[in-house]
């Protein structure tokens, strides 16, 4: 379906904030397939939902290729095509929860903070923290790192009943190692490359203990004890 851009701006750390007008419903951790072109690039771009408000839906994205370059140049009122929401998102949990995001992986965690109580946010960045104030509105505490200090360096997983995480694969692997042998359970949102978004093309296949799964359809969120990274 075609919608209209309400806002589109660079916010730092290589990330852009895009808001699209309309009425939307989705679960935390789901994504949409976005495109603002006809034939090239061939594929739409999978973008995680950042936030849903009464007047529209917003996303965070990074400029990494031709598709996101086109999206980054959209102005208020420009048309954009979106299909979704797709994927299995984060499961709602009860207890003390840590939301752990690295880079653009912070995007889907905002909705988690809106929907789950008693959350702390741990956000890791390359150069400087962003969106601390926004995450402070939906979580109890916000902790950030940048530069040579990794977000996993300051996290004590045993303080929490659950970890809900999204970010680079090395970060997710480290979190799985940190929670192994503890009572802390973890859900991870994978950032695998996707093409179709509906499980038809197998581009985003990932390994689990119950066989290969499609990140776009079976995920992108998996329980840590199930996925193999």
Quick structural gist:
The protein contains 4 helices and 15 strands.
Proportion of strand residues: 35-45%
CATH C-level category of the largest domain: Alpha Beta
Q: Distance N terminus to C terminus? A: 35 Å
Q: Strands of the biggest beta sheet: in what spatial order?
A: 1-2-5-4-3-6
Number of structurally distinct domains: 2
Number of helical elements: 4
What would you say the CATH architecture of the largest domain is?
3-Layer(aba) Sandwich
CATH superfamily of the largest domain: Nucleotide-binding domain of ferredoxin-NADP reductase (FNR) module
What is the string of helix and strand elements? EEEEEHEEHEHEEHEEEEE
Summarize model confidence as the mean pLDDT: 94
Shape assignment: globular
Q: Indicate the radius of gyration in whole angstroms.
A: 17 Å
Pfam families: DHODB_Fe-S_bind
Keywords: 2Fe-2S, Electron transport, FAD, Flavoprotein, Iron, Iron-sulfur, Metal-binding, Transport
Cofactor: [2Fe-2S] cluster; FAD
Binding site for FAD: 45-48, 67-68
């Amino acid at each position: 379906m075609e919608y209209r851009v309400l806002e589109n701006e660079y916010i730092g750390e290589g990330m852009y904030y895009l808001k699209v007008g309309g009425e939307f419903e989705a679960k935390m951790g789901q994504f949409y397939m976005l495109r603002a072109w006809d034939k090239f690039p061939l594929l739409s771009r999978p973008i995680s939902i950042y936030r849903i408000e009464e007047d529209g839906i917003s996303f965070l994205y990074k400029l990494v290729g031709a598709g996101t370059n086109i999206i980054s140049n959209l102005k208020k009122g420009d048309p954009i095509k979106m299909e979704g929401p797709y994927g299995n998102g984060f499961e709602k949990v009860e207890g003390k929860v840590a939301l752990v995001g690295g880079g653009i992986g912070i995007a889907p965690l905002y909705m988690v903070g809106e929907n789950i109580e008693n959350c702390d946010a741990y956000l890791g960045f390359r150069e400087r923290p962003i969106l601390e104030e926004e995450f402070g509105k939906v979580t109890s505490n916000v902790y950030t790192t940048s530069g040579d200090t990794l977000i996993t360096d300051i996290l004590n997983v045993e303080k929490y009943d659950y970890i809900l995480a999204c970010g680079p694969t090395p970060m997710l692997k480290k979190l799985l190692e940190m929670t192994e042998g503890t009572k802390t359970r973890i859900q991870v949102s994978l950032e695998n490359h996707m093409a179709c978004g509906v499980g038809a093309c197998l581009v985003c296949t990932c390994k689990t203990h119950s066989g290969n799964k499609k990140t776009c359809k079976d995920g992108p969120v998996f329980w840590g004890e199930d996925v193999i990274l």
